[in-house]
Each structure stands twice: as C-alpha cells, then as structure tokens.
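Good morning C.,

I know you're traveling, so I'll keep this short. The sequence:
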Amino acid sequence: MTIGAGTKVCGLIGYPVGHSVSPVIHNNLAEEYGHDLVYVPLQVEPGKLKEAVAGAEAFDFLGMNVTVPYKSEVIPYLREIDPLAERIGAVNTLVRTEGGYRGYNTDMPGLYRAMCADGVHIEGEEVVLLGAGGVARAIAYLLLDKKASHVHIFNRSAERAIKLTKEVNEAAKAAGTGSAERTTPFATAYALHEYGKLDQSRRYIVIQATKVGMYPHTEQAVIEDEAFYRLAKTGYDVIFNPLETRFMQSVKAAGGEAFHGLKMLLYQGIIAYELWNGVQVSEDTANRIYRKMEEALFVKG
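The tokens, ready to paste straight into the viewer:
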C-alpha cells in the first residue's frame, strides 16, 4: 500500500506491545476492503498514557486499541464511554468522536462471536470460570448477559473470586436474573483448590481466563489434576500462544472439546475495525484473516 497524507492511522497502546499480532488483523482487513488505513503498535511507557491519548487525538488517529496494563487506566482520559465498557470497567477500543475518543470493550462480544463460530453455546449452561482478573470479569458479565444458568468462579486468591462473585450477583439481581427469581445466586466463588465441590455428575463449559500456560511457560496449567478435566465437556482458553495449551491438552485427554483464544483475539479486533470504519466483516473474510494470524504465529513461534 501507499502511505500518504490521507492515510488513516490506527494503533495499539500498551506496554509491551512488540508481541502483538493485532497488526495482522487490521492491516489485512484494510487490504481486503481497500481502505487507506495503517495499523501500528505503539508502546507507551508507564506514566505516559495521558500524553499518548492526547497525542493520538492531536494526530487525528481514527482509533486505537488498548491492551495491558491500560484497559482501566485509560478511562479517565476518554470523552465518552460505552455502557458495556463502563459496566465491565475496562476499555480496549477507542473510537474517534468530536472532541476526543469514545471507549468500548470488544473483548466480551469478541469472545461471544468466537464461541458462536466454534459452535459453543452459553445459554442455559453451567460454566466454570478459572480466574478473577480483568478478562475473567468481562467473561463473567458475558455469561450473565448471554443467560448462562450459573457460573462457578475459581481463583488462587479466594478473596478476588468472592469480590467478583458478589459484583456479578448484584448485577444479576439488578437485571432481574438474580436471587429474586432463583433459589441460588448466579455466581459462586471458590479457592482454586476447591474444585472437588463441583457436582461430579455434571460436565461443564470451562473457560480458562488466566495467563497460566502462556508462552514461554507452556508446560503449566492453572489446575493439574486429571479428575478436574473429566468435568469439562468443553474447554475454552483465552490464551492463543501456544495454539494448544496444557489446559487444552488436559481437556482433550479427558474426552472434551478444547479451543484456544485466537478467535477471541480475531473477533475483538474485527469488532473494533467495524466500529472505526462502519463496515460489517463477513465470516469468509474473518476466516481468511484467521488463517493469516495462524501463519504469523507459526512463523513467530
């Protein structure tokens, strides 16, 4: 492509960002649609986030993605925030508006589109969620929004699991899907070692929402016990590098289906691109971009 004065710029704010495959998504989408747009990773040193957002506005960047550690920290520097992002308390996409940026969270809808593409359905299902950090928080709200029957939240720190569980149960009650209509709360908290309290006669959708098992520590899993994985009919790992994590291997060994997080990354990026450019990306196009992401990861790996 030819980059000129009329080329629109989008980018990724985070620290670090050198590992990101997001440019593969957006630059290939720009090529697919013939948009005069370039997407670049922009590493922002700690303490420089406010200046980075102001600089993007000054340079009239069309939009930005935001990754760790700035998904919550960026919120005070936005002109507006989408209600979903406000409810989750995290922003990963900035869309240029008059006088600044509007913040969105595309992680949650990105995961949902990825799960739908993989044939995994949430409504009416009991789900085990491993982790209670920012990603897990967004997923817990997704499970509530998409009418899972119950979510069991496990975390190394039981206090964090309890805090997230209380928050989600309050949201469920406010939405009219809480204790007023059920005999049990929507979410239950556990310390990580308490998985034996799960109903051993059931099989669950298990979502792995921690960094455990991410490259280069690929031999690790947040839970090692084979007995736990026999409870998993479907395992979903938010990690995408490696393409098959120890968690996924354990789910498959126990007879379940397992998926990695690359499609979640794909669809959160696609939704951001749709917001920036007012387009609807087809599944055929999404599949082509997905194959390019796999190729990029294979080369990098």
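Safe travels,
E.
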